[in-house]
Design brief:
Blueprint lengths: L1 H25 L6 E6 L2 E9 L5 E4 L11 H10 L3 E7 L13 E3 L2 E4 L16 E5 L5 E4 H7 L5 E5 L2 E4 L2 E2 L13 E7 L3 E7 L5 H11 L4 E7 L4 E3 L4 E2 L8 E6 L4
Antiparallel strand pairs: 1-2, 2-13, 3-17, 4-15, 4-17, 5-6, 5-9, 7-8, 7-9, 10-11, 10-14, 12-13, 12-14, 15-16
Length: 256
């Protein structure tokens, strides 16, 4: 009787071990990007955890020239045995593809913050900074970011802010009629990073409302419009806009 019990326990343990490995091998991959419908408009939303996912900012390659698009970046990473799992344009840029404002890459400030006044969306103040890395992740109004003394691994400045401490940017009016393809980023709980790109033209107010009311981001930043692009091979989407300025990407190392 005792021997039989021991055998039963042994068979049960073997079964559980085999079940674990089979489940691990057949588990569905994590859903990075998904389609979302909000107020009748279609978006693609991609979510990451700053504490786990290896997001990076990219601008120039080893030759010093801007990557200019997703495919040159993907090719460069592939040559190093890496895989580009996701990418999106990461802020406004000048005609030479240089970032329009603060740009920090791998803890090195390459472009200083731009606090000048001017025209265009970037200067629809307050604009802001999206930062991430070992010190956490966040979206913060530019002046507050500079005074906070945060030392992130990566940061990019763009504008305008879409959502500021739970309120939509005061200059983004609900009566606005200009509709464009738009993309932006919001951060929740100091580590959940959410990117969104509209799959059809939307107003600024509608886009800001998406981050505040549906994605629950207390702070969100506009990255760009019209040239907004997404690289998401997991959903068979690779946009081809070029030339492009700074790019944010998820770098992965393929498993053998």
């Amino acid at each position: 009787m005792f021997k039989s019990s021991k055998q039963s326990i042994g068979f049960y343990l073997i079964y559980m071990i085999l079940f674990y490995f089979i489940e691990s091998a057949t588990a569905a991959p994590r859903e990075i990007c998904r389609t979302l419908i909000d107020a009748g408009r279609h978006y693609t939303v991609c979510t990451f955890d700053n504490s786990k996912d290896k997001l990076q900012l990219f601008w120039r390659g080893a030759d010093g020239a801007p990557y200019g698009g997703f495919e040159p970046l993907a090719t460069a990473l592939k040559q190093n045995g890496q895989f580009l799992g996701f990418a999106m344009n990461a802020g406004m840029y000048r005609p030479d593809a240089s970032p329009a404002g603060l740009y920090i890459e791998d803890r090195h400030q390459i472009i200083p913050a731009n606090t000048r006044s001017g025209t265009g969306n970037f200067n629809l103040k307050p604009n802001g900074v999206f930062y991430f890395g070992h010190s956490g992740a966040g979206v913060m109004e530019t002046g507050r970011f500079l005074s906070a003394g945060i030392k992130p691994d990566y940061a990019t400045q763009s504008g305008p802010m879409l959502v500021i401490d739970g309120a939509i940017h005061p200059k983004i009016e609900p009566t606005g009629t200009s509709e464009k393809i738009r993309n932006g980023v919001g951060v929740r709980d100091g580590h959940i990073i959410i990117f969104a790109i509209s799959d059809e033209p939307v107003t600024f107010y509608r886009f800001a409302s998406l981050f505040r009311d549906t994605l629950n981001c207390p702070n969100a930043l506009f990255l760009d419009g019209s040239i907004s692009s997404l690289y998401a091979p997991s959903i068979d989407r690779i946009d081809h806009w070029q030339p492009m300025g700074p790019i944010i990407g998820l770098v992965e190392t393929p498993k053998p």
